[in-house]
# Entry
Amino acid sequence: MNILNKILGQNKSGHSEDFEKFLHDYFTGNGMIKEKLIKLIIVLGVISFSACSINEKDRIGIKGYVKDELGNPLTDVSISYRTSAISVQTNSKGGFSLNEPRTFFIEFRKEGYHSLSTRINNFSEDASYHFNTITLKKTSNPDAKYKDISLDTDPDFKEINLIGNVLNSFKEPLKNVRLTLTDSIMESYSLSKYGNRNGYFDFRKNIHQITIKKEGFEELVMDLPIYEKDSLKITLLENSNGKGIYIIKSDRYVSLPQTKLPHESEEKIGSVLWGGNFSYDVTDFFYPNKVEEFKIQNDSVLRFISYEPLFGSRLFKAQDEDKYLCTVSYKFGISPFPETESVSVSTIYPPKYSRHTLDEPKIVEFSPVSTNSSYVFVNSKTKRGYYFTY
# Structure
């Protein structure tokens, strides 16, 4: 601010010159004002350039420039990279910690040039690595390699700090579970010559890919964002060919009863963009009247495991007066869509960030807010449901 004040000048009260006078003097040819304005633009440009330079160097990731032997920028260079794998086992309390230093391998390839490879020891996804200019030499042998890369930064290793616990469906700790931070390969490219970033590359590793294995349990693969720093609580599911929906008690699964659900349908007419109409049903579902009551004791949290597909495992609460559950639209027959909001549940399995399909088993938790209420997991395709009273 002092620099700007010196350039523009201040009056005795400490305020800059009157803006209207400034504009008048500038447009009527006051040379001193024009000179000050030019100085101001230069100073602001220097400040902006310095900020950009600092940000580029300190920004998390791996960056640099690729050039040929004459110093010309090389664009569209293939940059492949991978990290070494780390593998640990859970302890007797199901706990694990992935904190070991890793090696980051990187290779630069461009047709007609030597390929070049190097490594970064003690690699961290949260650090900044800035390479000196990388020079690729022309060659007629595409398999020729040489190593000649250095870093102009030497950041300290920052711990990965991936910690957590692995449990079974009964919330019991699982020991000797193998967790592997896998050796994944990814690819990037040097940028084009536009924007004054000739041959520039800038990328970062954003995902921790973790494989979780234990004999007798379903294998899990998680793509965990590197910004996820909270302790992980991972539930593994036993291998099973189960069917239906069960409530999970302290030491066993108890099957929920299933029945055909009373329903009322109404035909609707829909239209398509390219012309024409079609008919479809909208169906209201109700809680069954003549069924044997299945009452669950007053636990504060209910945990269920469902082997039903996603559309067959949405939970709805029956209304007190007419036992209404939900309304389902069959406009898209392959996937009937409920128009009524289902009861809020927390998904325990598959865990967040895991790779899974819509039809694989699920473990959910539900916290009832009132007693003497009836609920149904509605299967909108079969028009059947798994019911209980709380």
